[in-house]
Amino acid sequence: MAEAFMAAEMAEQPDVLRRLAARRPEIAAAINSLVPESPVGVVMVARGSSDYAAIYGRYVIEAACLRPVALAAPSLHTLYNVQSNHDGYLAVAVSQSGRTPEIITVLERMAATGARTVAITNATDGPLVEAADVVVSLGAGEERAVPATKTFTASLLAFSLVAEALGDVPWTDDDLDALPAQVQEVIDDPEPAERVAAAIHDANGLVSVGRGFLFPVALEAALKLKEINSLLAEGFSAADLRHGPVAIVQRDFPVLAFYSPGPAQADMEALIEMLRKEHGAHVFTATNSRDVDLPLPEGTCEALSPIPAAVRAQQVAYALAMLRGVNPDAPPHLSKVTATR
Amino acid sequence: MAEAFMAAEMAEQPDVLRRLAARRPEIAAAINSLVPESPVGVVMVARGSSDYAAIYGRYVIEAACLRPVALAAPSLHTLYNVQSNHDGYLAVAVSQSGRTPEIITVLERMAATGARTVAITNATDGPLVEAADVVVSLGAGEERAVPATKTFTASLLAFSLVAEALGDVPWTDDDLDALPAQVQEVIDDPEPAERVAAAIHDANGLVSVGRGFLFPVALEAALKLKEINSLLAEGFSAADLRHGPVAIVQRDFPVLAFYSPGPAQADMEALIEMLRKEHGAHVFTATNSRDVDLPLPEGTCEALSPIPAAVRAQQVAYALAMLRGVNPDAPPHLSKVTATR
Question: What is the ipTM score, two decimals?
Fold first, then answer.
């Protein structure tokens, strides 16, 4: 079966998340020993899906450690040789393969200029594992489909666990313990995503949108639709969409909107109403209710909701590939390790 | 004339830049007095075109002050009430109108948690001007077209001048002095952009790409094409494009590629060759030569090249609007001040 890898790897996610969550004490101990007191700032280093996991990380880690979090501009280090001072900083690199040259180079340079370093990776050896002070291993097993699925949701959970080690987080132990079963609930219910895929089957383009904790899911949904289906899908925060890009949303244009009950909900609902009434958009909502296009599990708290929501996004991209007769495991021109410098 | 404002405001750019550059000593004195020694980090607050100016700012300011620069996630402050500690930080807000509520709220909260604050704005009064310790006024005069043009390039130059005050920069006084005439040279030569607009007249989508200092120009080019022409245009860094999104670039797909002689050139040239040979893309290059689709002035250094390159991007979006019979001054559903919170 052409679609064997991606579907199988999506199905493994509850187990991967359960195994990773069970390692909370070990991860907390390693982070606490590396960062005994709050850093002066945090920098993230990533590309692709891992970059979107890092955007989730920037929210949960800034909320926990109460210091500004930056996403690194790798070219400053790899091309322009800027020797920024990272004294007092924590640097976190994310790479499922652990083998993207620019990610390793940037983390090494941050370490050389004073940062304590963490790597979130599915690799168990190799250059990124060797470069980092602390390795948060995803333990997701080999991922053979080019589109990252289980390593993406595991990276989100890894950030949640790192955040827990750094300070207060907006979820409880019970919320975290419930997560694998909630992801299983989504995986056992693929029909909503198949209906959305059928509705966008002929679309030329799509917008996905979220805000706050769900913003990186909007980015990841668009990336999956781009890389698997060659669909012109762009992800936005609700606020950025309003600042100009909303002009692309015309009558019947498809929009995927991700939100959960919480502080970002009112802004998302106002945006959805505006897109429907003023633009005539076809908005598909993903939220924690059974009565929406893409139901998310009821009871998932907003800050952990990106994990089941990302699985919904995977399902839509996968179902669209099945409808269009595309092999999701190996999109043309892409490879599993992207050797950017 | 429907197109009166945008064209007139584009034409004003050399004068706006000349006037702003003449205020270098005053701006340097204000920044040096606010930040007598290097901050522990810098945070930027912006949305829309101003956010892309801030991405340019993150490169030049990190290169000058040698401390990590972060782009703020406004919702952490406006929705989630995260009280990050900004002791020792410099916060820079960018807003052409000076009236976007979330930008003001975030800067005020950063000030309240320890940051020294700078506002880059075209406003001369109002809440952002009142909130900031130092105001770098763009002095661009009223901008009436909804798409930002002269305030965008003035914001880029403002960041260059702030960077000069903070440390060493990768350009000379002569490079800066030559800039207004170089922008005039682009404005006096609209035909290349008109030819590109004619070639992409019927396109359903487009990718724009740059790397390093020119990356924000790729983002801004795509935003202009989205907001003025409702074109599904997405901007990428060369490295991010390779990590998956490149799958949308199929045979004859239009790509705008921005680069200048310098450290990012080899990576951009390799990408362009790959897009042409492996994807069959129709790549339009904007670089400092007369023999390319969108010539940039010869002699502009890479780190200042985003300013004339942004004018090339404006010309393409404007020429496409003329071809398609769209009024660029007032795209449907958009207004000059976007009231996000």
Answer: 0.96
